[in-house]
Amino acid sequence: MFGKILHANDGSEGAFKALAAALNLARRYRAELHMVSVEELPWLPGTREEVVGEKALANHHFEAVAAKAAAIAKKERVKLHTHLVAGHPVSTIARLVETHRFDALVIGFMGHAALYNAIMGSTAERLVRLAPCTVIVVK
């Protein structure tokens, strides 16, 4: 049913719950498993140095997320391909799904931005609407 699965991980507890589900699906269907983390850069950086500083912080955070996810996948005996990309999470993930023709996207219900999600709508909700594949939201 699923030959190629993408898991989106922002480093939150919910994202790691979703990783467990993605690993289970990958094992069950013998699917290729990829993980993406999207670093958001400031919309209106004041200086080039701000962009460089923000990017360095995001890279450090997501390198740790990728390392933790890779260790979990290795323990579960699933090969995990990791991707770190810059952009807006929703559009970047939806575009990645389309470009690489993933059969399923596995995401956590709530990431780090709980207040924003309550006001503007969640990343998960928008991905369910926009991703051109099956979307599995893990609570």
Topology (SSEs and partners):
Layout: E1 4-8, H1 13-29, E2 32-39, H2 48-75, E3 80-86, H3 89-100, E4 104-108, H4 114-120, H5 123-130, E5 134-138
Parallel strand pairs: 1-2, 1-4, 2-3, 4-5
Helix pairs in contact: 3-5
Task: Give helix and strand order, one letter per element, not per position.
Answer: EHEHEHEHHE
Could you tell me the radius of gyration in angstroms? 15 Å
CATH architecture: 3-Layer(aba) Sandwich
Task: Tell me the major beta sheet.
Answer: 5 strands, parallel
Helix content: 40-55%
Average pLDDT works out at 85
Task: Count helical runs.
Answer: 5
Distance from N terminus to C terminus (CA atoms, Å) equals 22 Å
Going across the major beta sheet, what is the strand order?
Answer: 3-2-1-4-5
- Uncertain regions spanning at least 5 consecutive residues: none
Q: What fold name stands as the CATH topology?
A: Rossmann fold
* CATH homologous superfamily grouping: HUPs
Share of residues in strands: 15-25%
**What's the CATH class label?**
Alpha Beta
Query: What is the molecular shape?
Result: globular
Number of strands: 5
Total number of domains? 1
- Computed structural class: alpha/beta
